[in-house]
């Protein structure tokens, strides 16, 4: 994948569910939808990842259901859901329900988990990175099978977004199951990772162009974003956090997105 995709460039904004009242988070979702952001993401943790570790924090899936109800155009999802916290069939049912609440705007973002405090405080087995990835590989076929059984079925074929860049396990899972692959790669790293992903796609019989490439913008310049776009990235994500949600970077990156799509 060495040239821009036929897909339009999209901007997702991850609103961290930390250090802010619910009303502020809710109003920020409405604000980014009004600005024209493509996807509103949160994250699936139980404690803040920055700032005061005992600061305000809200749960991911219940927020997503509320966002689905309050919005009308923007897609919603977690960047990413932690598969370890919930039974795979339950995750599928929750996703299907939010997909209906949103009218077919839900993205099933998922990963294997990494923040040990979440596990320790809530009584989940942390295990190892390898065992968590093995569990994710086992869970995704169950999620897909449950979607096929549910009545009513999901509104659409729910897009699966998988986050992570591990070359032996994560990218193999991406090749088998993902509609979107998300990473924090620089251009140089992305070149290498796409090569690995391409090899895994060949192994499992998948066309890599079926997978949308997503990359985090944090700390990146527009020049780096241009390079990532030339490599095939079309979904770019930007994180913001409370207590004050500064939307000026969102506006700047929307202008960049619109120029790319012109």
Structural commentary:
This protein has 262 residues and is an alpha/beta fold. 45% of the residues lie in helices and 16% in strands. The chain is built from 9 helices and 9 strands. The chain has helices at 22-35, 60-70, 88-102, 116-122, 129-149, 170-177, 187-204, 222-230, 248-261; strands at 10-15, 39-42, 75-78, 81-82, 106-111, 160-163, 180-183, 212-216, 233-240. Strands 1-2-3-5-6-7-8-9 form an 8-stranded parallel β-barrel, surrounded by 6 helices. Strand 1, helix 1 and strand 2 form a beta-alpha-beta unit. Helix 2 runs parallel beside helix 3 (88-102), helix 3 packs across helix 5 (129-149) and helix 6 crosses helix 7. The longest helix has 21 residues, at 129-149. The two termini are 22 Å apart. The relative contact order is 0.17. The model has no long low-confidence stretch (mean pLDDT 96).
- The helicity comes to 40-55%
Distance between the termini: 22 Å
Overall strand count: 9
**Mean pLDDT across all residues, rounded?**
96
The helix/strand class is alpha/beta
Query: How many helical stretches?
Result: 9
**Percentage of residues in strands:** 15-25%
Main sheet overview = 8 strands, parallel, barrel
Apparent shape: globular
Strand order of the largest sheet: 1-2-3-5-6-7-8-9
- The unreliable regions are none
Radius of gyration: 18 Å
- SSE arrangement, N to C: EHEHEEHEHHEHEHEHEH
């Amino acid at each position: 994948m060495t040239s821009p995709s036929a897909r339009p460039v999209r901007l997702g904004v991850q609103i961290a569910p930390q250090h802010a009242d619910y009303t502020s988070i809710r109003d920020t979702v409405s604000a980014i939808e009004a600005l024209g952001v493509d996807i509103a993401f949160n994250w699936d943790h139980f404690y803040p990842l920055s700032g005061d570790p005992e600061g305000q924090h809200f749960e991911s899936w219940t927020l997503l259901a509320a966002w689905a109800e309050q919005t009308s155009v923007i897609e919603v999802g977690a960047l990413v859901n932690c598969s370890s916290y919930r039974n795979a069939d339950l995750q599928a049912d929750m996703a299907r329900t939010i997909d209906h609440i949103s009218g077919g705007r839900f993205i099933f973002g998922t990963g294997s988990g990494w923040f040990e405090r979440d596990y320790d405080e809530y009584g989940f087995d942390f295990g190892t990175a390898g065992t968590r990835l093995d569990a994710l590989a086992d869970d995704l076929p169950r999620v897909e099978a449950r979607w096929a059984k549910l009545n009513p079925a999901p509104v659409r074929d729910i897009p699966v977004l998988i986050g992570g860049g591990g070359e032996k396990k994560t990218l193999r899972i991406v090749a088998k199951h993902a509609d979107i692959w998300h990473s924090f790669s620089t251009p140089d790293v992305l070149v290498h990772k796409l090569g690995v992903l391409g090899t895994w796609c060949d192994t499992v019989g998948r066309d890599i162009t079926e997978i949308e490439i997503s990359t985090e913008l944090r700390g990146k310049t527009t020049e780096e974003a241009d390079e990532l776009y030339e490599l095939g990235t079309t979904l770019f994500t930007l994180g913001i956090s409370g207590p004050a949600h500064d939307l000026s970077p969102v506006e700047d990156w929307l202008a960049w997105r619109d120029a790319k799509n012109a």
